Amino acid sequence: MIESNGLFMKKVLIFGAGGFVGKYLSEEMINHGYVVEGSDMQKTDNILDAVGFFPCNILDTEKVAALIQERQPDYIVNLAAISSVGASWNMPAMTMSVNVVGALNILEAAKKLQKMPEIMFIGSSEEYVPSSSATSEDTELNANNPYGISKMTQEKFAEMYRQRYGMRIYYVRPFNHTGIGQRDSFVLPSFCRQAAEIESSGKPGTIHVGNLEAKRDFSDVRDIVRAYRLILESGNYGTVYNVGSGKAYSLKDILNHIIAFNNQKIDVVVDEDKYRPIDTPLVLCDYHKIKSELGWEPQYSIFDTLKEMYQYYLQQSKKNK
């Protein structure tokens, strides 16, 4: 805790601060009076100037311990992860290492401090069994892909450390989220980038896609990080919260919405190489608990977010000409 102008400001240490969500969470916490420090493998453009940066590999047990001991944060948020389901199929062992062993390194380091920090771990809707209706926190957990299995395992360790060592550990299961800055290996940035490049080219083009029938609950990343802050501030460290928009749209409808931004003709080609080995038909969030207990609900429409992302890629494409 740091004193500033007679006020004590709580310190947040974010692992994975150099990633897509890290930038938005840092901004959210700074705007609400926190001192933010960040760690990642290396410094990226996502590290805000106001964030103190400390390089660290989350799999380096000794460095993680030394960093937490040195910085003595009030809160730790772990965003460092293999976060793509598709990538997890290609490297299941690395997914388990980063998502589980990395979390254990943080837990082991934090429990040794005289004043243990409060910790937030980020789970996923991929932990749940497939469902034909909205998924609540009471839905059975039984992931069907390496990423989801790694998150289930992380959650079990968090629960064990909470019970055995009395640690204040928050756990959240966010559904899909996106925004400017997400890697275009994810589906919505990929659609927006391809469409914007075709528009910028001034001639017709083709977008390559995978399974368009899947229905997904997408949120704006700014809504997601606001939920993270509210959960940390709630003190409800024994409660797991879902975070999502409560609306699901097919990827086909989303793609058609993006294509409508264009003046150029776009052909859509289905590429079976883009299909996942197992793909859940519907993912839809029931966010009743966080709404009723913390007053959180979405403030952004995913269609407004898509327009922002498309405009961003259009500007980037024009700059690169």
State the gist of this model.
Helix content is 41%, strand content 19%. The chain folds into 2 domains: 2-177 and 218-243, Rossmann fold, CATH 3.40.50.720; 184-216 and 247-283 and 301-319, UDP-galactose 4-epimerase, domain 1 (Alpha-Beta Complex).
What would you say this structure looks like, in words?
The chain has helices at 20-31, 61-71, 85-90, 92-111, 146-165, 187-201, 221-234, 251-259, 288-294, 302-319; strands at 2-4, 7-9, 11-15, 35-40, 52-55, 75-78, 118-122, 169-174, 177-178, 205-209, 215-216, 219-220, 240-243, 249-250, 266-270, 282-283. It has 321 residues and is an alpha/beta fold. It folds into two domains: 2-177 and 218-243, NAD(P)-binding Rossmann-like Domain (Rossmann fold), CATH 3.40.50.720; 184-216 and 247-283 and 301-319, UDP-galactose 4-epimerase, domain 1 (Alpha-Beta Complex), CATH 3.90.25.10. It has a seven-stranded parallel sheet, with helices on both faces. A three-stranded mixed sheet has the order 14-11-16. α1 links the parallel β3 and β4 (35-40). α1 crosses α7 (221-234). It is globular, with a radius of gyration of 20 Å.
Percent in helix: 40-55%
State the shape: globular
Mean pLDDT: 94
**Stretches with pLDDT under 50, minimum 5 residues:** none
CATH class of the largest domain: Alpha Beta
Largest sheet: 7 strands, parallel
